[in-house]
Structure of Rhamnulokinase:
Amino acid sequence: SAVVTVAAVDLGASSGRVMLGRVGAGRVELTEAHRFTNEPVRVGDTLHWDILNLWHGVRTGLRAAGPVTSIGVDSWAVDYGLLDASGALLGNPVHYRDARTDGVAERVATQLGEERLYATTGLQQLPFNTLYQLVAAAGTPQLGTAHRLLLIPDLITYWLTGRIGAELTNASTTQLYDLRRRAWATDLMADAGIRTDLFPPLHEPGTRIGPVRPDLGLPGTAEVVAVGSHDTASAVVGVPATGERFAYISCGTWSLVGVELDAPVLTEASRRANFTNESGVDGTIRYLRNVMGLWLLQESLRTWGAVDLPHLLRQAAGEPAFRSVVDPDDPVFLPPGDMPARIADACRRAGEPVPATPAATVRCIIDSLALAHRRAVHQAQQLSGRNVDAVHVVGGGARNELLCQLTADACGLPVIAGPVEATALGNILMQARTAGVVGGDLPALRTVLRETQHLVRYEPRGDQAAWRAAEDRMGG
Ligand code: LFR
């Protein structure tokens, strides 16, 4: 039976990769063609993405990959590049953790109305939503000169093909997308003072975008296919679940915690709980919450310098449980910086013991993340009415045994960990389906993953009382 080789370009907040997938009926093999670091660059007051370095990594990876049937691109959400009328990029895209949006969301929400924003877009209030970034950039010469706005995967796709467009799963994270009309929310844009002509036509995952530019020197590589270009959308495709009674945690820099639904939940309770309705592939809704995620650990490691992470995690596993807990979703943790100091401050303010060693800090982070996972898994069920029997942990966090076990304990549900490369796999499976070598709907794609990927099951231990008490201490 037919087999194709496709390439997934997956750009994450700390690294980018080009993965090769060989897919046929009932099989998928994944290999890494190239991995490169993604280091944000501060110039003056502004934190930028190093987009040309990312592009360099993409090109190097695609050359190393050799001829492929198609390429699919995904990355983190909300951020964008601006093109002038000739198609040239205007400046380096600004990082969503930049301070330019401080205070903007509150102002815009008051002006436009939180209820209206939620009814139209279904989106959680995150300070860095594209809506708020564009309001923060209002009046700058760059925005004034701009002809088009492209989200990061659409920008890479443009550089690969010369085609301008907006893939829908990522467009749905901007807070400028009308989720019921499945179109740009032009009324909202106009009322927020954002030019509606910046936004290119939308297309669905699975759309064939066009051939790669001949001048890229990729002989034998045919075309770019739209995948779930929001990395979380591809990660959810890559969840090896059976049926619909599952929650997922796409666990990397962020933990994206939620369920997959057929229709959005736009109730007042949902809005107040800050749950989001992001669009998934095949018309699904990713009903989830952003939990601050392993960012807390990544920034702590950066602060400490050279440390042996496996050793530190073993030490953390030996620390007493729940000695100090913080709310990971506290906005003080959002910007880059000295995370151990911020965690110590948060403990001091909350009357929690201040972690005295890196191992104690790591235990505080993992306990607190497990608690935030518990809170979000419970809320997702309550608010959506979808009950779950298991929690799938996918992404880099699936390797973290302590976090997976404590998440199972905290949720009182089995955790099924893996695949680590769910995002690349989701990207690859969408391309393989477009190429016609795997068939069917999301459950059919997930069956291929269950049959081919290494998964680890964690059973919940202990009782829920201790977790309930610790969750109360976390506040929030
Ligand atoms: C995960 C992710 C989240 C989004 C955040 C910022 O990589 O895409 O889904 O909220 O990054 O873009």
The chain has a mean pLDDT of 97. The pocket of beta-L-fructofuranose is lined by residues 76-78, 96, 230-232, 253-254, 256, 290 (CB under 6 Å). The first strand starts at residue 3 and ends at 11. The radius of gyration is 21 Å.
